[in-house]
Structure formats: structure tokens, C-alpha cells
Amino acid sequence: MTLKISVIGTGYLGATHAACMSSLGFEVIGIDIDAAKIASLSSGTIPFYEPGLQELLQSELKTGRLSFSTDFTAIKDCDVHFICVGTPQVKDGLAADLTYVFASLAAIAPIIKDGSLVVGKSTVPVGTAAKLREQLLAINTNTDLAWNPEFLREGFAVEDTLHPTRLVVGVTNTRAEEILREVYANNLAAQTPWISADLPTSELVKVSANAFLATKISFINAMAEICEAAGGDVTVLAKAIGYDPRIGHRFLQAGIGFGGGCLPKDIRAFMARSEELGAEQALEFLREIDSINTRARTRMIDLVRADLSADLVGKKIAVLGAAFKPDSDDVRDSPALDIAVQIQAAGALVTVHDPKAIANARNRFPALGFSESIEECVAGADLVLHLTEWKVYREIDPAELIKLVAQPKVIDGRNALDRDKWRAAGWDFRALGRSNA
Ligand code: UDX
Description:
Layout: E1 4-8, H1 12-23, E2 27-31, H2 35-42, H3 53-63, E3 66-69, E4 80-83, H4 99-108, E5 117-120, H5 128-139, E6 144-147, H6 157-162, E7 167-170, H7 174-183, H8 185-189, E8 194-197, H9 199-230, H10 234-242, H11 263-276, H12 284-307, E9 316-320, H13 335-345, E10 349-353, H14 358-364, E11 369-370, H15 374-378, E12 383-386, H16 391-394, H17 398-401, E13 409-412, H18 419-424, E14 428-431
Parallel strand pairs: 1-2, 1-4, 2-3, 4-5, 5-6, 7-8, 9-10, 9-12, 10-11, 12-13, 13-14
């Protein structure tokens, strides 16, 4: 008999997981306490931008396998319950806020049927899964809890969920693993690497993967600082070191650094947890990774002042990009928006463009200027900043754009524009980490 699945928490992770599990043929019910979110998903609309997800949601709703509800009792017949709620940074420290994870377990534990398996997917500090399992078994000894971290990237959420690079399951017994093998039978048939681990290791895999990615980005941004000081070019350096297969080219894009809802909060929660474990020295370097990352934003503002004027009052600055990365409307801890806000606070007249994230950006920073068109955004600008590497910005014809600005000055904060082309069109082109000779 096909497994029935519930997904608790229908944010980015949960909505994607629910639609993808349904597309594999499972009957899926998504649960959330947010009635507006549930109404939106039930009508086939995702409340955020993610390529391909809306289409998948709509086609799965039509099959009748996928439904959404705010009523927790709707999950009582399900065999597997995925916990996909958020774990944001606490307001008064670096640690992760686990309120939603513990609240969702408390809500489902008295309802779920004997023999069912709870599977945590949220990113949590190591040790959380064991605590949750203990609490679950105290309420119903005939259930079990496993951990199965997700590695999905925004912009590739459907692809990453359906075709993950690896599947990691934290289990305490073989029965839990067998159930998870049934859930992921398709991936196993496609030879996706399967890693069976204990609960703490499975939790650590996720945070250490994100810590490694953050380290790679901050490493190249540190090299960018050195290149600036020594007159080198970080883009050439990254290309050259990346050919070593032990290093690789990915995540070596120097610029204004990482943001979003995962990397910054995950490395901070990891540091906080290491302190609790008495192993803070091991992750001391992550403090440096974090500060290189925030310094990249400051360096960008320094470059704006050096390029334009120390006094930014009244200067018209066009900002291309608000999302924390392309193909996303997510502005959480966005380096682009952070820079836009800081230069506006310094007196500049800032207009921001983004293909998808303007509504979210405006909600967060209503005092910034926004524009729906690139042409309108740059009209009369003293300086253009390229801060999120959307494809539409790479496709700009610099020879046309130059006709609209007051001064032909551009700074590429993502090292993604074609410098030679922009210079040939008459632009004064600068970028982080590149010699401007
Ligand atoms: C990340 C992890 O990649 C994913 O595996 C995990 O599940 C969640 O966190 P995501 O937050 O979607 O995913 O974004 P990611 O693609 O990792 O980019 C994070 C940030 O790093 C972005 O702001 C991006 O612009 C920046 N970045 C990325 C760089 O500055 N340089 C790079 O070379 C790569």
C-alpha cells in the first residue's frame, strides 16, 4: 500500500517537499497554522517565487493526492510526518529559535497513529533530534523519530528535492530506515548516494555543509581583499585555483557575500551550539567567516565613496538587484538591500530594481525608492550598482544604458558583468577584488 505522508509547516521547504512527494505518487497533506498560507496553497498559488513550483503545485492539486489544512487531526491516518517548520535566529543572540519545532512535535504527538514515523527536516542544532524523540516516545511509545536534513537551494528547490545530490537519514533502528527507503525508492533506484547515520551526525551534516559553503565564499572574498591591496584580479585567481579538482570552481564567486535565510543564521547557530557543547574553539574560525562576509558589504560602500564622492548626500544611485541571490524573491539578510539601505542612510537618493523581489523589499524597507523597469531605475543616475546577478542584468546592452545615466559609472558587486563590453561602451567600470588598471 502506498504511504500516506503529512508535511508540518508549509513554508519554502514544506510547500516544496509536499508538492514533490505528491508528484512521486504519495497521498500528501500539508499542515500549517497560518490560514492565509494554507488558503493560498489550496488554491494553487505559492506565496513566494520559486521556478517551477507553482506549476507542480497546481498539477498535483488536480490529481487529488495533495491537499492542505490548518487542522492537525487531518494527519491521523498518515504513515510518515515530515517536520519542515522554520528555525530562525533568536532575537537576542546567535542561537536558533526552536519554538516551532518543539510546538509542532507537541501538536502532532498525541494525534499520530501507532507505527508512524516522524521525520525532521528542519535545520536544527545538534542534539535536538534526540530530545524530540524522547518527547515523542513519552507520549506514544509505538512511534519513532528520524532525521533527514534537506539541502535544497532556493531557485532550484524542486530539482534539489526530486534529484538530491545525496540522501542522509539519521535513524536509531532499521525499521525507521526501511520506511525512509520506501519514501525515497525512486532516488535509490536512480543510485542517489544513501547515507545512514546516527541522529547527531545527520543533524551535523546539514550545518557543516552550510559552514563549508560559507567558508568557501568568505575565502574568495578574503582573496578579493588581498587582490585589491596588491593590484590583482580575484576573478582570474578564482578561475585558476578552481581548475584544481580538489578546490573546484563552484562557490568561488567573489563579491558582496552571502545572505539569505540559511547560511548566515546557520553558521551563527552552529557557533552558539559549539559553545554549549564546550567545543567553541573548533568553530572560532566561523566568526572570521562571518566578519569577512559583512566586511564585503562595507567594502562595497567604501568603493562607492571612492568612486563617486565621500559625501553621498543627493547623489542618485541606481541599485540593480534586491534579492539575496538571483531566481529568488527572498530578501532575508540580502547583501544587496543592506547596501542600498546603508547608502540611502548616508544621504544618497537610491532607486532599486529587481525582477521578482520588489514587493518583499518594499515591505521590509518602504522608505527606499523602487522601480519596475531597469531603464527608469537608472535614469539620471550618478552611479549604477550591480548587486544581484540576475540574467537580465547580464543581458543589458551597456551602449544603450549609457544614454540614460547622468554619469557612466558602474560597480559590479557580483563580478558577473562583462567588464570589457561595458568599458568598450564607455563606462567607468569597477568591481570588488579586481585591479582597475
Ligand atoms: C543554501 C545552501 O546552498 C543549501 O544547500 C541549503 O539547503 C540552504 O542554504 P541558499 O540559501 O538557497 O542555499 O543559497 P546559496 O545558493 O547557497 O547562496 C547563498 C548566498 O551565497 C547567496 O547570497 C549567494 O549570492 C552567495 N554566493 C554564493 C556568493 O556570494 N558566492 C558564491 O560563489 C556562491
